[in-house]
């Protein structure tokens, strides 16, 4: 039943993630391992030449380098950089903590600092994630409103709507917009464009000020905005900049806007991944059903196939829901389901997402449909629940 379907989705997602990680590990190993080996050979050669030139033993030199590594962890560098733990440095550090970026270039060294970080991060990360969720909810509302306004303008240009009609007045405008539903995939496209614009603008600022190449700046933007935070490139670490106050403010604004957009984009992409998982499960279920039905058909050659008796009619949200329950009943009876019925019922998810997004744009109150209860991914908390509520992402169990 429902529990088995949820377990199937969970297991399939876990298998896909493991396969994705294995493929990524293979690619990165093939790309980066030769460079690492070359760098290690060059370093061993330099180390050998240095010990010969200065008449030092390898053990003494390695001990000195280990001491420098410990100093580097505490924030000491060969080049002059600003203090890590002055007020501005500490504020930058807590920003990377609550945003879950965690560059790693600054970490508490004292026991008191580590204990305080545990409780501080627990509340700070939870509050920031709540802020990102609320930002995502309002962003979806704004996008839906803009898309609906653009659609109304197109209708007025085509003459479908009168130019002097007031919003929400009259039945002609309501009838003309009744069948229109904004595409959910536009949300992902808009977020992709917004993230790209912010990253390009931020890179244009980082390149001359930090001295990075433009590609390195784009790389830093993705690592920082996605909260991966490797720490190999970190902005605002030099001891002094031209227009230092303005640059640090711009750096803060770009990171805040970038994290919000990328966070929202990740959640929209997660909806697409869920839809793909459901599609795979449906394909697997359909093949298994066909195998069983072929065996059943051999023993019941005179059975009447209900898919051939279905009347021709247009597909809508309501008819999809009716077809869904009818299809479930036939599957439980062990009879064959036609491919036409399967493809028609497969449109339920996108249709209901678009319907709920349209209601958001029009300001209609959201109502929980009966289909949302059947969604294997519905419910939950956080950004996923907000995306399910705003976009009404529903994958009906079949």
UniProtKB/TrEMBL annotation:
What is the recorded membrane topology of this protein? Multi-pass membrane protein
| GO BP terms in the entry | stabilization of membrane potential
Residues annotated as transmembrane: 12-33, 90-111, 117-147, 184-206, 212-234, 246-266
Keywords from UniProt, A to Z, are: Cell membrane, Coiled coil, Ion channel, Ion transport, Membrane, Metal-binding, Potassium, Potassium channel, Potassium transport, Transmembrane, Transmembrane helix, Transport, Voltage-gated channel
Q: What's a Pfam family in this record?
A: Ion_trans_2
Q: Gene3D superfamilies in the record, alphabetically? A: 1.10.287.70
> What catalytic activity does the UniProt entry give for this protein?
K(+)(in) = K(+)(out)
- Any one Gene Ontology molecular-function term assigned to this protein's record: metal ion binding
Report if keyword Cell membrane is assigned.
yes
Protein's recorded name: KCNKD protein
Q: Which organism is it from?
A: Pterocles burchelli
The gene from which this protein is expressed is: Kcnk13
């Amino acid at each position: 039943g429902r529990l088995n379907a949820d377990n199937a989705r969970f297991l399939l997602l876990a298998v896909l993630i493991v396969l994705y990680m294995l493929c990524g590990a293979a690619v990165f190993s093939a790309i980066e391992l030769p460079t690492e080996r070359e760098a290690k050979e060059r370093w061993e050669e330099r180390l050998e030449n240095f010990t010969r030139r200065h008449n030092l033993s390898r053990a003494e030199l390695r001990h000195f380098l280990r001491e420098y590594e410990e100093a580097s962890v505490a924030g000491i560098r060969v080049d002059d950089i600003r203090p890590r733990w002055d007020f501005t440095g500490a504020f930058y550090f807590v920003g990377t903590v609550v945003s879950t970026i965690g560059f790693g270039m600054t970490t508490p060294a004292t026991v008191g600092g580590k204990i305080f970080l545990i409780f501080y991060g627990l509340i700070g990360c939870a509050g920031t994630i709540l802020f990102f969720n609320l930002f995502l909810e309002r962003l979806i509302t704004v996008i839906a409103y803009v898309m609906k306004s653009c659609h109304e303008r197109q209708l007025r240009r085509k003459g479908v709507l009168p130019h002097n009609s007031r919003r929400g007045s009259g039945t002609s405008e309501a009838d003309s917009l009744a069948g229109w539903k904004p595409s959910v995939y536009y949300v992902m496209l808009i977020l992709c464009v917004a993230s790209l614009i912010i990253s390009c603008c931020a890179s244009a600022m980082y390149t001359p000020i930090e001295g990075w190449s433009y590609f390195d700046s784009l790389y830093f933007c993705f690592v920082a905005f996605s909260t991966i935070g490797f720490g190999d490139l970190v902005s605002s670490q030099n001891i002094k900049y031209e227009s230092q106050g303005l640059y640090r403010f711009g750096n803060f604004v770009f990171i805040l806007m970038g994290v919000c957009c990328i966070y929202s984009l990740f959640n929209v992409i997660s909806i697409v991944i869920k839809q793909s998982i459901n599609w795979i499960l449906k394909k697997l279920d359909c093949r298994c059903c066909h195998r069983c039905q072929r065996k059943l058909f051999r023993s019941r050659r005179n059975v009447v196939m209900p898919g051939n008796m279905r009347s021709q009619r247009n597909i809508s949200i309501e008819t999809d829901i009716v077809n869904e329950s009818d299809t479930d009943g036939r599957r439980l009876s062990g009879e064959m389901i036609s491919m036409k019925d399967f493809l028609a019922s497969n449109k339920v998810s996108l249709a209901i997402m678009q319907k709920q997004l349209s209601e958001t744009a029009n300001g209609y109150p959201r109502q929980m449909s009966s289909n949302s209860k059947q969604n294997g991914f519905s419910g939950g908390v956080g950004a996923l629940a907000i995306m399910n509520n705003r976009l009404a992402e529903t994958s009906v169990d079949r």
